[in-house]
């Protein structure tokens, strides 16, 4: 496996030059565009990593997966469906113009900013600090890594500059989708986006999702298998921003990317994949990361279709 992953890194490295690191969150602009790591977790082969697979970066939008899981575990499918829909918007992750009519829950999904921000309100907890702590604890549990924490600099950087997310949150309030204090909700969302992981953590989280909530190492069911089905379905249709259709055709597995340069891919029943390469294409997806998944999918016949 490591040899295959190394060949893929070598082949995809040139694609890095097609992208740029995210700069709209000032702290993310400090990333080294040339870093590239891949890690897989699979039955039989265990954990295999190559390149910069031990390098940490912030989850950014990949945290939307855990926010959705936390909300599903706390309020069930019905509670989540009442607040946030499941249809792909076909628009960028931070778009305002969902529809010409009033904004309704069915216009947003858990993998766009508005949907993830709304879902933070469903997390159990008396305060937003408590809600975030429960989210972080769940992330630690599914990654099997109790030391996961936030990158304070990235968190503060986004909190200081995230006015588009502020506007989205007020829009959710204006249309009565949420009623909470905007800054409190946003604080939870910004902290979630700032959780620092490595490609190994992403591969392990994806592997639990691939096994429908089962941690195969301990043999423990960590969360409801129906919630894994729900999440994987949403990742398949909405996880790669407005590039999800293309990704379904070229790679064919549920996945989530983040503007920190990470991609987490779930191969149902078989494998979890974590990738880090921070040079992004115009949609916000890692250029080399997408290419690597394309090659890996072809080589190992990973597409679920
Ligand atoms: N924290 C980022 C934002 O809300 C996450 C976006 C992303 O990774 O797509 O702008």
Account of the 3D structure:
It is a single chain. With 305 residues, the protein is an alpha+beta fold. The chain has two domains: 2-60 and 197-299, Beta-lactamase; 62-193, DD-peptidase/beta-lactamase superfamily (Beta-lactamase, 3-Layer(aba) Sandwich), CATH 3.40.710.10. Helix content is 45%, strand content 11%. The chain has eleven helices and nine strands. It has a five-stranded antiparallel beta sheet with strand order 2-1-9-8-7. The model has no long low-confidence stretch (mean pLDDT 95). Residues 60-61, 93-94, 113, 158, 165, 193, 258-259, 284 line the site of glutamic acid.
CATH class of the largest domain: Alpha Beta
- Beta percentage is 5-15%
Q: Helicity range of the residues?
A: 40-55%
CATH superfamily of the largest domain: DD-peptidase/beta-lactamase superfamily
- Ends apart, CA distance between termini: 23 Å
User: Reading side by side through the largest sheet, how are the strands ordered?
Assistant: 2-1-9-8-7
Poorly predicted spans? none
The coarse overall form would be globular
Assembly level:
single chain
How many beta-strand runs?
A: 9
The major β-sheet equals: 5 strands, antiparallel
Mean pLDDT: 95
